Amino acid sequence: MPAIFFVDQVKSFNMLMFLSSSPKTVFGNNDKQDTTKDGIPKWEVQVVATFTQFGRVENEILKVGIASEQDPAKSVSGPQPIELVGFRVGVSPAEKRTDRNGNEKIVGGTAWYQADEVRALNAVPAGRKSEG
Question: What is the structure's pLDDT at 132?
Fold first, then answer.
């Protein structure tokens, strides 16, 4: 079974709206930006995902991880509709663990989100010329 699934944003969401972008920090050290094993800085982009579920409009804030040499949302200013290029979702497997007090608990089983870049919906994709 695949562990990562690419998302068709048009079919999944009514809209994705950019909220913020900030460096993802190393766990336990808020002063140091985390990096991939290849040394590329990690970023956390927060977006509001609007979708319809059971006939009702729902909104959820998604924290999307992006690896990039520079802020992946530097060309996006303020709240605006966006697309997440290469948007994918994964689910960490649920595991039974024993804490230091000897109590068993289930950890994991949560969704995580990644993308390759953030693009404002009014932006012209690289390699294309605007019509006009």
Answer: 47
**What's the distance, CA 127 to chain centroid?**
24
Report the candidate in 32, 1, 11 with the shortest Cα–Cα distance to residue 83.
Answer: 11
- Percent helix, strand, coil in the chain (nearest 5)? 5, 55, 45
Give me the half-sphere count of Cα atoms (radius 13 Å) on the Cβ side of residue 45. 32
- Tokens found for residue 41: 């800085």
Task: Answer positive or negative: Cα dihedral of 65, 86, 61, 69.
Answer: positive
Mean pLDDT of the chain: 88
Count of Cβ atoms closer than 10 Å to residue 48 Cβ: 16
DSSP 54-74: TTEEEEEEEEEEEE-SS-TTT
Q: What's the pLDDT at 75?
A: 87
3-state secondary structure of 51: strand
| CA-to-CA dists, residue 29 to 26, 33, 113, angstroms | 5, 8, 22
Instruction: Write out the H or E segment, with its range, that includes residue 96.
Output: strand 95-98
